[in-house]
Amino acid sequence: MLKKLFRSELFPIFILTLIGVVLYSIRLPETIELASDFGRDTLRALELWQHKELTLIGSPLAINSLPGHTVFFTSVSLYLGMFGLLFTNFHPAGTVLVNIVLTGLSIPMFYLLSRRLTSSIALACFATIIYALSPMTVFYARFFWTPNTLIPLSVFFWYLVTLDKKKYDLLSGILAGGMFLIHYASIIAIGAYLLGLLVTRQTRKFATVTAGTIIGIIPLLLFEVKNHFYLLSSLILNLQQGATSTGNLDQGSIVNTVAIFFSAIFGLRSADLTFTTLVNSPLVTNVGSLIFFVLFLRELYLVFRDPRKRIFAFTVSFTLLILLLGKNVINIRYQFFNYPLIILFAGSMLWRTKSKLLIAVCLFFLLGTTFKIVSHTQGSTQFAYPISTLEQISQIIVRDDYRKSYNITQTVTGDAQAIDLRFFVLRDSVNKPQNQYSYINLEGLYVVARSLPEIYTANRWEFTATPGLEPTQSWPVGDLTVYKFERK
Q: What DSSP line would sit under 54-79, residue for residue?
């Protein structure tokens, strides 16, 4: 059996899968930053377990919402994160466990997909290397964020699609519905694919995939009916008032806009969320974008000429067209549903050049950026402190064992509600702090700051909401101090 494995064409893919899983999981505690969405969603996943909540409401959409009309994603990704926390004894890095497993499993599946869509074993292997080791794949596998699981799930979706059997078409539709539940922007690529089926007159496949998609979103449909279509009506109202997605990428020229994904795949630039790259040079990025733009247009033309692959080219290009027409919505995550197709485009368009130098340069940047991502150690920044520091501070508060009504805050970063620290205090304390919105009528307040005067100078609402608080104790932690305030 082992001899057959070693001789099999899948053996290199097996080795590549092991390498990929190592890159997705190595040094996670040293590299994660419990700030922004990662910190918010990790805390929420812990709360779901502690409160034994069963809810469909997840994280808010990153759009400028009107008061009283916040739009939420479903809670699918939060429960996946909670599942990972349970298996890692509630370490915050555990939230990415499911995503790492799915991404690892998707590597051999991506190879099988490549073999079905290409005639060359060498090209399929080359594309699989790009998929498994790309900074995009590695970074998003290691990061807990709502759309991240779309990357591995998209591989399974497109593989099912290529099997071209009714039962697999139905399964692919159900999976598409599940991916829509994870991130609503998936509807753009799903719609593009379904439209492509109609354009290419694959009506039976269109009906089956559509039926499966409807089955997949039944939980959301039931929720909307029960709640008078709150999410849909709120989304429409926000869009009518000109709400836009926050944190969009700077589009720049049409060349850079189209080539954004390829530049991020090969590590010439970061994606929606910033990751460290091998070189931070606008010249390198612009030259790379121009090369990728030309190669992509050529590849798109060649793929469109192949009737067997035309549907895939249509889905990618139509999704891109919608994003280009929609102002201020160029986000790489909106193409996550098409991720394996774009990787195949990237691999094929480089392979066709037959330029060993160009391929070597692209792989150099890809691997260099990937290793910078996994070797980077998270230090103290304006956004967050390392996990080790947060755990030290948390243990001070836990050991103090304050039995009255209390909360926590800090003046070191912009996170006045101390979401990163709150996770550890909630996890380890017996008497839990009040939630992140309750700072009125407290008996005690723990404040993390560089100095006592800094607390009064910052004058944050979380500190002033309860009048009469006076410092009673303090504990130094490196360049920080934990101050305990009590109401007299």
A: --SEEEEPSB-PPTT---EEESHHHH
